[in-house]
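Input record (one chain):
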Amino acid sequence: MKFKVSEDVDAPQEMVWQRFTDFSGFEEDARGRGAVLNRVGNWTQTSQGVEWRGEVTVRGKSRPITAKVTQLVPQELCIVDSRIGGMNCHQEIIFVPLSATVTRVALMLDLSADTLTARLLLQTMKLARGRVLQKLQGVLARQGNAVEAAYRRQNRS
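The corresponding structure, as predicted from the sequence alone:
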């Protein structure tokens, strides 16, 4: 099952790339929602091959999670492959400069299931596709708004 959303961010491509690939904010957000995430190898900078492992609660049950940055093209592309319980997640984030100060961020999320429980979860997501897309769009918009605010503060100095 595929989900695609995009957001135009009023900031240069390099800045958008840096902010979107600084995963510490995403880690904090996940921890705030009850996930337990650990960086494999205690890496400090995002690069191809960095990994996370941990647990997340889905529908009241703790499930193992693994994630790895499988492809990273600076300022253009970031691909993260993860597995949550019996579900495989392939996430692509593409950064396209529309002008010197506007960048389009396109997010594609491809989900597939290996277990019956994961298949049931995917069926539920299919029924709620509109809400799932709204939530993804909201996450992208919030991150984009944070980058735009930082860019405006930087230009005032």
